[in-house]
Amino acid sequence: MKRLPKGSSEPLILKALLTGNKSVTDIERKTRLKKPTLYLSLNRLKRKGLVKPLGTRRRRLWALTGKGRRTISNRIEAEKIVQKIIGPLKRAIRLGLTYRQIQSMLSK
To answer: Is the predicted pLDDT of residue 4 greater than 60, yes or no?
Structure first.
């Protein structure tokens, strides 16, 4: 399996938790991420205040915080916007516009 860029597992975990509290095993099944990656990411998300552990160490569940729910909702909304504009951007590139020109237009 190809290695994901650092931090790219976090949105997957947050999306998995949108439907409710889950154990690491449940998150593993839903995201197909390995447990070491999940534990590292969950602890990073906990430090950022996006998720919180519930229950005891043996029966731990993970839940989104209010901040985590807002963060992933914004991310999903941003992905929808990008999906709407990706087709026209690809067409503009096929017609001869370069990535650098697009980047220049975006920075104005």
So the answer is: no
Rg of the chain over Cα atoms, rounded to whole angstroms, equals 18
If you write DSSP's letter for every residue of the chain in order, what string do you get?
A: -PPPPTTTHHHHHHHHHTTS-B-HHHHHHHH---HHHHHHHHHHHHHTTSEEEES-STT-EEEE-HHHHHHHHHHHHHHHHHHHHHHHHHHHHHTT--HHHHHHHHT-
Q: What is d(CA 81, CA 62) in angstroms, rounded to the nearest whole number? A: 29
- CA–CA dist 27, 16 (Å, integer): 6
Residues in the chain: 108
The average pLDDT across 22-44 equals: 95
Tens of pLDDT, residues 82-104: 999 999 999 999 999 998 998 89
CA distance 34 to 84: 32
pLDDT of residue 57: 83
Residue with tokens 């998150």: 27
